[in-house]
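Hallway conversation turned thread

IA: we were arguing at lunch whether anyone had actually written out NADH:ubiquinone reductase (non-electrogenic) end to end. Turns out nobody had. So, for the record, here is the sequence (467 residues) and right after it the C-alpha cells. Reply here if something looks off.
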Amino acid sequence: MEEAHTMAPHRVVVIGSGFGGLFGTQALRRRDDVEVTLVAKTTHHLFQPLLYQVATGILSEGEIAPSTREILARQKNARVILGTVTELDLDARTVTSEVLGRRTVSTYDTLLVAAGAGQSYFGNDHFAEYAPGMKSIDDALELRGRIFGAFEWAELTTAPAERDRYLTFVVVGAGPTGVEMAGQIAELAHRTLRRDFRAIDTRTARVILLDAAPQVLPSFGDRLGDAARSRLEKMGVEVELGAKVVGVDSTGLEIEKGDGTHQRIESATKVWAAGVQASELATLLAAQSEAELDRAGRVKVLPDLTLPGRPEVYVVGDMMALDNLPGVAQVAIQGSRYAAKHLKARLDGKQAPEPFRYFDKGSMATISRFSAVASIGKARFSGFAAWVLWLAIHLVYIIGFKHRVTTLLHWAVSFIGRGRSERTVTAQQIIARNIIRKMPPEDLPTLPVVASDHVPAADGPSAERTG
C-alpha cells in the first residue's frame, strides 16, 4: 500500500509585530495547512497610541508592549523570529533578517509586510539627536529621562537663564500625539511635581506646542481643534501655529514664522511628533515590483492590498498607500484581517472577497485628565464624555487581561490622584542610543561564535552567523 502524500504547508512570512503583523498572524490561527513565521526587530507588540504615557511616567513599558511570543504561545502554526529585515528577494521569495551579526533567511509562499512607519524629520534627520520622536519604547524611555531629568537639572542650577531653559518644554507637531504629549507635560509641571522640589516652582515651567499647520488637530475638524486648543491654553500650554522648525540643537530650536521672521526658543527638552515616514522596506518592495511610492514613502497597493505584479505579496498598515487612508491602528488591523481572508479564499479555491474597504471607527485624543476630543462618524464631542469613551476603547485594545488591570490601576493613581507610578529614569536612557548610533559598524556588538557552533548555509530557512 502506498503511503498517503501529505502536502507541504503554505508558508506565510509576516514582517512586523505591530497591529498589522500581529492581527494578520492571529487571523490565520485556525489554518492547519499554513505555517506563519513572524519576523520583527523587537520582541514585543507595541500599543503605540499610549507611548506618550510611558514617556510621562503614567505607564510602564510592559503594560503597552507585551511579549509577542507570549501572545502567540498557543498559536501552534506561528513561529516568531527576532531580527531586522535587511533584504527582500521577491523573485526567490526570501526574507533576510539580522540581529547582532546573526543572519536568517526565511522562505515564503505568501508575504505580509506590516513594518509600519518611523518618525519623519522632513530631511533633517540630525534633529533626532536633540528631539526624539514617539515611535518606539526606546523613544519613550529616552523622553522620560529627558523630561524628568530637566526638572532635576533645574533644581541644581543657580543661573536664571539656565533654569528657564530646563523648564521650557517644546513639542513639535499638533496632531494627536503632540497634543497628548503637551497636555501631559503640563499636568506633570502644574499638578504632579508641584510639591516635590524646593529650589524651583515647577508650575512656572513653559510648555510650547508648535506646528507649521494653521490648526490644532487638523484631521478632527475646526470645532474639535478649537476645543482642544482652548483646553490646552487653559492648562498653560502656549500654542504657536504657522511656525516651521528650521533648526534644532542641544539648547534650543529655531522657528520660521508665517511672515518669514525667525525666532529662537531656548529649551533643553524637545519632543518631535510632527510627521511619519514609511519603513525603508517600502523602497525595496517598489524596486522589485510594479508598485510606486507616494510622497511619504508608502507603497501604492491594489484594492486587494497586494503589490502590482506580485499577487503573493500583501502590504498593510502605515506602509500602504490606498484611498488616502490615515496611518492609524484600525487601518492596520482591518487591512491585515482582510489580507488573511483574501489568502484563505485563494488557498480554498474560493472567489476572492470584495476589494478592501476601511470602516472608520472614529478618532480620539486626550488633552488632560477627564478631557478628550472624539470624532465618530458625524458625531463630534469633547470633554468628560469623550475622555470616558477614550478610556474604554483603549482598555479594550490593550492585549491581555493582566495588562488591562495594571493599566487601569495606574490610570487611577495618575488621574484620580496626582502621582505617577513610573518615574524611574537613568542616564543610560538618555545617552546610550546616541552613543550606539555614532559607533563604527565594526565596533557594534555581535553574538559570539565558537568553533563547535554549526554554521548552516545561507540558502536554507535556518540561521547563518556572520562577523
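OS: looked through it. The mean pLDDT is 92.
IA: good, adding that to the notes. The domain at 10-41+83-119+277-347 is CATH 3.50.50.60 (FAD/NAD(P)-binding domain).
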